[in-house]
Design a protein that fits this description.
single chain; 210 residues; alpha+beta; two-stranded antiparallel sheet; 6 strands; globular; binds zinc ion; ABATE
Length: 210
């Protein structure tokens, strides 16, 4: 199914997992929101990870083929990281889990971030703010904010509460930040309702048979 027909899903409560959820089956067919370069740019903007002006700059400087190549690399990174998370979700990370993150560290090494002091005016009062910026040398630079999201997930999220949705055909993952950690579904709209309908049908069938 064409990703342009349906908005991307941001239900993970953790941006690194939202990135894994950039391919999903929200209804019947699989949708991959980063299946090409244009999709990757749109997803990064909708996720609020790359500013509109940076997206425009990268787009102006890159060919469609270059952007498609980066999207393919982003999908590779996504599936590599999915395997990493799936293997470890449900338990806190331990020291040896760092070893397999070497490819991610190599990517992070290439980042060109820099800080900049900017003035912010609110109600006539000026305050200075240290803002993080990044040099966007080529289309490939788009992988760096993604690498940062994945690194943050590993460093800041307790993997004990990283879960896969219980929907039988659902592939969505999320960080369960609820009190009591009882979250079971990606979202009520996608899978929660589906489960309710299935339970209701089962009850009706039982009543009929009984
Ligand atoms: Zn689900």
């Amino acid at each position: 199914m064409d990703y342009r027909q349906i908005p991307p899903i941001f239900v993970a409560a953790a941006p690194g997992l939202d990135f894994l959820n950039s391919v999903a089956t929200p209804v019947d067919e699989e949708v991959d929101w980063i299946s090409d370069g244009a999709g990757l740019l749109a997803w990064l903007e909708q996720a609020g990870i790359v500013s509109r002006s940076a997206i425009a700059a990268v787009r102006a400087r890159s060919t469609a083929a270059e952007l498609d190549t980066v999207a393919a690399r982003a999908r590779e990174l996504r599936e590599w990281f999915r395997a990493y998370v799936q293997k470890r979700k449900g338990r806190s990370l331990v020291a040896k889990d760092l070893r397999e993150l070497e490819p991610l560290n190599q990517l992070l090494e290439r980042d060109e971030q820099y800080g900049q002091i900017v003035a912010d005016v609110a109600d006539g009062v000026v305050s200075f703010e240290l803002r993080a910026n990044r040099r966007w040398k080529s289309a490939e630079s788009l992988l760096l904010p993604i690498a940062e999201l994945l690194a943050r997930l590993v460093c800041e999220e307790d993997f004990a509460h990283v879960k896969a949705c219980e929907g039988p055909r659902c592939t969505l993952m999320f960080a369960d930040h609820t009190r009591g950690h009882a979250r079971r579904w990606c979202s009520m709209a996608i899978c929660g309702n589906r489960a309710k309908v299935a339970a209701h049908r089962a009850r009706l069938k039982e009543q009929k048979n009984g």
